[in-house]
Write a structure and sequence with these properties.
Blueprint (H helix, E strand, L loop, with lengths): L3 E2 L7 E2 L9 H13 L12 E5 L2 E4 L4 E4 L2 H4 L8 H13 L11 H13 L6 E6 L2 H16 L3 E5 L8 H6 L17 E4 L8 H11 L5 E6 L15 H12 L2 E5 L23 E4 L10 E6 H4 L15 H39 L4 E7 L2 E6 L2 H13 L2 E2 L1 E3 L3 E4 L7 H19 L6
Parallel strand pairs: 5-15, 7-8, 7-9, 9-10, 10-11
Antiparallel strand pairs: 1-2, 3-4, 4-5, 6-12, 11-12, 13-14, 14-17, 16-17
Helix pairs in contact: 3-10, 4-10, 10-12, 11-12
The structure holds pyridoxal-5'-phosphate.
């Protein structure tokens, strides 16, 4: 198995596991954590990170992991990329906060102009900046209703859009996200996702039986579903949605919070199908780990509302804007191309892995470095995630029985090969009955 030199401390291979997992300090920290933090946090497995560089993560016991989860697809430029860190440091010395809601913060407008330049909306864009993905979704729902004067929103089965009330109402990946929280936002319908023939649902079911087309404000879609299982739609599906939205004056919102910012080997996943939405939502990878979410909208939509309709004290914080400007420069400076190349390498390797474990791996799919591996059962996916962790590889489950690979877009060919080798061993272990959890 290949290894990569560790940039952390003395030269070490990555991964390099030196204690049992979780180690003694990790176990103590978990016990401490469980006294004080909200039990709602859905912890996947017991890693306790303290330092990161590139794709290497050091835990509290000095173990080194190879990170193919990237903080849920967030650290797009790797952990603590030096250019991002120094840009944040420079900005921190100048100004930490001033609130762009009430005043004219230059770096906020500078980032909005950049977002206009990189967003394929077929015309000028204006942007609203918040602190997270879910805030971007909330802002988009409000804006679409305001701009159209229409009440209904269509999302998709399998979708994940966040956990605040509006976005969790759009979410339909797992019933547990709704359990105990009803009633949710009214006026939301869920359509089947992904197949071209499913588009008939709009005419045959929605517009015919549920809501007139001229009362639908927006269709919000993940161009590739994320938490729902890294599901890639059929060619023609997004194009079909664009056609339906255009025909009825409905706002087409692409939630690129997980699929955007270069992850799929293009700046935005919609570009794989040449579709121009009316709104793009971004968060996660756009600021390399600083909290930022953006609604990038066709200017005429954003110009429908006026002062006071929406705002945020912290949204578009100068540090987050600085990190985003540097992230975009790094993405365009080669990371998007790298994501495409490493994605081809990973998919080819996973096809071999699938052939090596017939029946257990039932599908491999994705674009760029947004890759889903589907297993035969939920238990198998869980066991593979655990066995990978035990071997020093961080991956994350998604959907019902899939594991996702979403490493930093800086991943090297060696790192991808190392991850494939570790995954092979993890699937082997999960087949043999698994490592004890
Ligand atoms: N939309 C998508 C597609 C996501 O994947 C997520 C988070 O996983 C969100 C929205 C919500 O983002 P956040 O957790 O930053 O609120």
């Amino acid at each position: 198995m290949s290894a990569v030199p560790s940039p952390i401390g003395r030269p070490r291979p990555v991964p390099d596991i030196v204690t049992e997992l979780p180690g003694p300090r990790a176990r103590a920290q978990i016990a401490f954590d469980e006294n004080w933090t909200s039990p709602s946090l859905p912890r996947a497995y017991p890693i306790v990170p303290v330092r990161g560089e590139g794709l290497a993560i050091e835990d509290i016991d000095g173990n080194l992991f190879l990170d193919f989860a990237a903080g849920i697809a967030v650290t797009s430029t790797g952990h603590s990329h030096p250019a991002i860190v120094s840009r944040i440091q420079e900005q921190a010395e100048d100004l930490l906060h001033f609130s762009a809601s009430d005043f004219y913060l230059p770096i906020y407008a500078e980032l909005c102009e950049e977002l206009d330049r990189i967003a394929p909306l077929g015309g000028r864009a204006r942007s609203f900046l918040g602190n997270s993905g879910t805030e971007a979704v909330e802002a988009a729902i409000k804006m679409a209703r305001f701009a159209t004067g229409r009440p209904y929103i269509v999302a998709f089965l399998g979708a994940f859009h966040g956990r605040t009330y509006g976005s969790v109402s759009l979410t339909a990946s797992k019933a547990k996200y709704h359990a105990g929280f009803g009633p949710l936002l009214p006026g939301v319908y869920h359509a089947p996702y992904g197949r071209v023939e499913d588009l008939r649902w709009f005419d045959d079911v929605l517009f015919e039986r549920l809501a007139p087309a001229d009362e639908v404000a927006a269709i919000i879609v993940e161009p590739i579903q994320g938490e729902g299982g890294y599901v890639v739609p059929e060619d023609g599906f997004l194009e079909g949605l664009r056609e339906i939205a255009t025909r009825h004056g409905i706002v087409l919102i692409a939630d690129e919070i997980q699929s955007g910012a270069g992850r799929t080997g293009k700046m935005w996943a919609v570009e794989h199908w040449g579709v121009e939405p009316d709104v793009i939502l971004t968060a996660k990878g756009i600021a390399s780990g600083l909290p930022l979410g953006a609604v990038i909208a066709r200017a005429e939509l954003m110009e429908a509302w006026g002062p006071g309709a929406h705002g945020s004290t912290f949204g578009g914080n100068p540090l987050a804007c600085a990190a985003a400007l540097e992230t975009i420069a790094l993405l365009e400076g080669g990371l998007i191309d790298n994501a495409a190349e490493r994605g081809h390498q990973a998919l080819a390797g996973l096809a071999r892995l699938r052939a090596h474990h017939p029946g257990m791996i039932t599908d491999v799919r994705g674009k760029g470095l947004m890759i889903g591996i589907e297993f035969d059962t939920p238990e198998r996916a869980e066991a593979v995630q655990w066995a990978a962790f035990q071997r020093g590889l961080l991956v994350l489950e998604c959907g019902r029985k899939a594991v996702r690979l979403s490493p930093a877009l800086t991943a090297s060919a060696d790192e991808v090969d190392t991850a494939l080798g570790l995954l092979d061993a993890a699937v082997e272990a999960a087949t043999a009955g698994g490592d004890a959890a």
